[in-house]
Specification:
This protein is an alpha/beta fold. The chain contains 9 helices and 16 strands.
């Protein structure tokens, strides 16, 4: 976790420390992260600032130069980067009542942090919202953009801009396997849910956001009936038909407010294209295979037909690892890989599912997972006393969250550069990510040298700004 000097949100901040104590006898370095936001209206040019480091014995003046290019990242992200809040805000001390003011404000805190990082967090939905209006009170500022304004103490990218993507508040009921075919009345129920959601969108005029439904998760995974091909075929036929009919029910209810059913899987969908009973084309509109199963050519074909394509975590050589014991390059590859292959979104399955008892010492969704950090991208500020600081509710970012954002910024710069100089921009990004996703074999193809990534971003900035590219 990155422990901020000023912790808080919605305009209320608490100072966690004034000085940093480093034992000189240990002869160790102390790293600092400085988050700098450059407003869109800031004129291009060179800016200087002096940072003063003081100890009991001496003072050091460090000049810092910031070069601002004539290139502005869009307030509305071009890539959907989404992560799921799995256990809501239990460790933040606000309870589990979603209708309480405390719970509402904590939800806003997490959404503001996500928005500053060009991301969207959505909470795992155990139940449908009640009819007493709490849902609109909580989420209207997110879907109309007012949460990201000075009124709510917000500073950062996407000011007054609604989130690009949002999950309909329906429970994700089917996980890994569906025991039996869904009854017709269950499928028809999604038509009613979609009608209700359409009415809510129309009433509140939430027209600047795209919507998706998360009902199934990895239900056609490769492990189901692996030893019995006949049963597996029958199972997949049933499951794919269920998903098709659920999407049709949603479409019947949502009408002119599209709601795409999210498809997640460890399976590469190209394996089913020769069998009409299993082929998912024309049934799925929001594709989200894991990175190793994300076939770039197939996803590009579907995107050209109007579908939306995402990928989620996996590992080398398909995509950078999301665990802690890796370099900052790893999560940075997500945004750059997405831009390189024209993939619209990225999905992190959980962002706060660590240990209840030791959230800083055991940041994994289960203690025996060797991917340390899996399921955790942010930490609970209310548990800061466990790390020796004053407990202050609100999300604490991780270094991997910053790296993920950096890759998303690189992706935006590439898209700007591509408009000015498509050949140079494409050559540049393909040199950084020669191959990834399901096309990759062997070792990861991208550079693990930080200097290469610094040069890459500088060149993107120059291309995006239309200036001469340094050799």
């Amino acid at each position: 976790a990155l422990i901020p000097q000023q912790q808080g949100c919605l305009g209320d901040n608490v100072t966690l420390f004034d000085t940093i104590e480093v034992d000189a006898t240990l002869r160790q370095n102390q790293s600092l992260w400085l988050d700098n936001y450059v407003p869109a209206e800031q004129p291009a040019g060179t800016y200087t600032q002096v940072i003063t480091l003081s100890t009991d014995e001496s003072t050091l003046q460090i000049p810092v130069t910031l070069k601002v290019y004539n290139a502005v990242l869009p307030q509305r992200p071009s890539i959907d980067a989404v992560g799921e809040i799995y256990r809501a805000y239990r460790l933040e001390g606000v309870g589990n009542n979603r209708e309480s003011t405390q719970w509402q404000r904590m939800s806003w805190c997490y959404q503001q942090l996500a928005h500053q990082h060009r991301m969207v967090f959505f909470e795992r939905t155990p139940d449908l919202p009640s009819d007493n209006g709490y849902y609109d009170r909580t989420y209207a500022p997110i879907l109309d953009g007012t949460l990201f304004s000075e009124r709510y103490g917000y500073q950062g990218t996407g000011a007054r801009t609604p989130v690009t993507i949002w999950r309909t508040p329906w429970p994700q009921q089917y996980d890994i396997q569906i025991d039996t075919a869904m009854p017709p009345e269950v499928k028809r129920r999604y038509q009613t849910l979609a009608q209700d959601w359409r009415s809510r969108v129309l009433k509140n005029q939430w027209f600047d956001t795209n919507y998706f439904a998360y009902v199934f998760d990895e239900v056609d995974g490769p492990s189901i009936f692996a030893d019995d091909p006949t049963r597996r075929y029958d199972y997949l036929t049933t499951v794919h038909n269920d998903m098709d009919e659920v999407q049709q029910s949603i479409d019947a209810g949502s009408a002119d407010i599209p709601i795409d059913l999210l498809w997640t899987s460890h399976s590469n969908p190209t394996q089913w294209t020769d069998d009409p009973a299993l082929d998912l084309r024309g049934k799925v509109r929001l594709w989200a295979p894991n990175a190793s199963a994300a076939d770039p050519d197939f996803l590009a074909q579907q995107a050209n037909k109007g579908d939306t394509t995402w990928f989620y975590h996996s590992g080398h050589p398909a995509i950078g690892a999301h665990s802690i014991n890796n370099s900052g390059i790893e999560m940075r590859t997500w945004g750059v890989t997405g831009a390189r292959y024209g993939i619209k979104g990225q999905f992190m399955w959980a962002v706060n599912l660590g240990s209840d008892d030791r959230p800083f010492a055991e940041p994994s969704y289960r203690p025996d997972d060797d991917r340390f950090g899996n399921g955790v991208m942010v930490y609970p500020g209310n548990q800061l006393h466990r790390a020796g600081f004053r407990p202050t509710p609100g999300p604490l970012p991780s270094m991997r969250l910053k790296a993920w954002r950096r890759g998303l910024q690189d992706a935006e710069l590439f898209l700007l550069a591509k408009k000015r100089n498509p050949k140079a921009a494409t050559t540049l990004i393909e040199s950084m990510i020669p191959v990834a996703l399901a096309d990759a074999t062997g070792s990861a193809a991208w550079s693990d040298n930080p200097a290469d990534w610094i040069t890459f971003q500088k060149t993107l900035l120059q291309l995006a700004a239309g200036t001469n590219v340094s050799p």
